[in-house]
């Protein structure tokens, strides 16, 4: 008999859209909220961020057991969604609470994050299973496949909109005396999670609500431990497969499923590593992006550091659409057909991505700021919009510095002009013909001071229409960036 598509599943799909919008929104701006508002350093913020992600995923296990074995999925979803909303409200309040000390704001923020990871940990394992409960199998097998596609699309769409919009809200609007507005971003996310709860409750009378049963996780672990205990304590353990020792207390189906899980467990041992790296765009890569200007001139738009995370759901949607028609045939053409081969190939792509990230970080940071023992370093900044030339026999250099560019050189502090750990060296500055403010072939001689273990900057500039000078900038450069300051 033909079964109609259950309308109650649309409440589930829209609920998932709103919940993923909220979760990814918080995850997107969290690292910058920790560093810029709560004033944790990069390492501390990374630890807090990944701890939040870990706990949100870990909470899925006890919450799944709670929903399957005790409360039932609908009650678990409702109660834990309320906890989720409460966490959103607390975190939003923490971002507004300027009248409190920074320590109090941190406590409120941690309380909010605690409630959020408990809430999202409860929703994550229950919501899809609850949607699946609305179908009758095998009569509605095609319908449940359609539901799975729509559910996945809701996840990617919600996260894509959120990861794109939240950085704009927190950056483009100023509030509470700051040049950012995290309270606005958090407030929108709180509203979306409240909407998710309201939508879930709206379909209350339409849902199929199955009674709690034995949880598959508890049965699987029970099967393993019972089989091990029987094998160790029994005088005549089963000789076919050690899991067969669980016969009598567990069904043949449960034993067979447990054996299948253990057969592929070697593949899943790599999953914790993969997912820990997968979340790096939300922490280290976002902090890396703060060191770049993000300007896209062809779009007349500046991408925000945390906005780069929108590429994850964007490519998720693209891959979801292209897999069957484009990517699978493409993989097959190069001999990649089996699921394990596809996993391996994609893992190689992930490794290449992290190599690119490492090379990019090296390009941003540049050479090491450590100065070898017995040496000092000087920087010369060209303040003119034309090329200048520097040469020095003492430094063994003959170099051209571009317009508004810089040049650095390290040198051993050993010469006739040494006084302790300080050396004074001569240098000649010349100018190209395009430098209209000086006569042709104009050069002038000056001296530079080099201090062992220090870095000194010099700025080539014009003090007045008749005088060009190479000015020393301060006593020496600081090689340590202030925790919440900007570099020179």
UniProtKB/TrEMBL annotation:
- A biological process from GO: peptide transport
Q: Which residues cross the membrane?
A: 21-41, 47-67, 79-101, 107-132, 144-162, 182-201, 308-328, 340-362
Topology term for the membrane: Multi-pass membrane protein
Q: What is its main location?
A: membrane
Q: What does the UniProt keyword field contain? A: Membrane, Peptide transport, Protein transport, Transmembrane, Transmembrane helix, Transport
Pfam families per the record? Answer: PTR2
* Gene Ontology cellular component annotations, sorted alphabetically: membrane
Q: Answer yes or no on keyword Transmembrane.
A: yes
The record's listing under InterPro entries reads: MFS_trans_sf (IPR036259), POT_fam (IPR000109)
What is the superkingdom listed in this entry's lineage?
Answer: Eukaryota
For molecular function, the Gene Ontology terms on record are: transmembrane transporter activity
Q: Where in the cell is it found?
A: Membrane
Q: Which PANTHER family match?
A: OLIGOPEPTIDE TRANSPORTER-RELATED
Family from the record: Belongs to the major facilitator superfamily. Proton-dependent oligopeptide transporter (POT/PTR) (TC 2.A.17) family.
Q: What is this protein called?
A: Peptide transporter family 1
The organism is Acyrthosiphon pisum
Q: What is the lineage of its organism?
A: Eukaryota, Metazoa, Ecdysozoa, Arthropoda, Hexapoda
């Amino acid at each position: 008999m033909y079964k109609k598509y259950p309308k109650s599943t649309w409440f589930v799909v829209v609920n998932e859209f709103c919940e993923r919008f909220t979760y990814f929104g918080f995850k997107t701006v969290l690292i910058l909220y920790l560093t810029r508002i709560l004033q944790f350093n990069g390492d501390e913020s990374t630890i807090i961020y990944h701890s939040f992600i870990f706990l949100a995923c870990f909470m899925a296990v006890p919450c799944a057991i709670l929903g399957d074995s005790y409360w039932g999925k609908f009650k678990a979803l409702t109660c834990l969604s309320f906890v989720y909303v409460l966490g959103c409200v607390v975190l939003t309040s923490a971002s507004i609470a300027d009248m409190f000390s920074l320590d109090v704001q941190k406590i409120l923020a941690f309380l909010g994050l605690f409630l959020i990871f408990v809430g999202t940990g409860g929703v994550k394992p229950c919501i899809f299973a609850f949607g699946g409960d609305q179908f009758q199998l095998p009569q509605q097998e095609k319908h449940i496949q359609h539901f799975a596609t729509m559910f996945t699309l809701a996840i990617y769409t919600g996260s894509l909109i959120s990861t794109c919009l939240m950085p704009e809200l927190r950056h483009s609007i100023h509030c509470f005396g700051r040049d950012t507005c995290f309270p606005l971003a958090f407030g929108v996310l709180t509203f979306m999670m409240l909407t998710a709860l309201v939508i879930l409750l709206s379909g209350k009378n339409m849902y199929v609500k199955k009674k709690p049963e034995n949880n598959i996780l508890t049965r699987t672990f029970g099967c393993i431990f019972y089989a091990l205990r029987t094998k160790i304590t029994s005088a005549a353990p089963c000789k076919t497969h050690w899991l067969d020792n669980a016969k009598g207390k567990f069904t043949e189906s449960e034993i067979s499923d447990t054996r299948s899980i253990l057969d592929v467990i070697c593949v899943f041992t790599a999953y914790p590593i993969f997912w820990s790296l997968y979340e790096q765009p939300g922490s280290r890569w976002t902090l890396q992006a703060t060191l770049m200007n993000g300007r896209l001139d062809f779009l007349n738009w500046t991408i925000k550091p945390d906005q780069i995370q929108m590429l994850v759901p964007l490519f998720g949607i693209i891959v979801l659409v292209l897999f069957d028609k484009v990517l699978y045939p493409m993989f097959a053409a190069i001999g990649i057909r089996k699921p394990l081969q596809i996993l391996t190939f994609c893992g190689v792509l992930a490794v290449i991505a992290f190599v690119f990230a490492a090379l990019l970080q090296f390009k941003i940071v540049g050479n090491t700021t450590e100065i070898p023992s017995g040496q000092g370093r000087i920087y010369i900044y060209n303040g003119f919009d034309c090329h200048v030339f520097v040469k020095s026999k003492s430094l063994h250099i003959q170099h051209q510095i571009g317009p508004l560019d810089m040049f650095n050189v390290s040198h051993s502090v050993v010469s006739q002009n040494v006084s302790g750990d300080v050396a004074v060296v001569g240098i000649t500055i010349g100018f190209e013909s395009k430098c209209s403010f000086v006569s042709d072939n104009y050069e002038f001689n000056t001296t530079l001071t080099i201090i062992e273990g220090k870095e000194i900057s010099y700025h080539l500039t014009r003090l007045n229409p008749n005088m060009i000078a190479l000015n020393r900038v301060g006593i020496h450069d600081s090689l340590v960036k202030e925790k919440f300051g900007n570099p020179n």
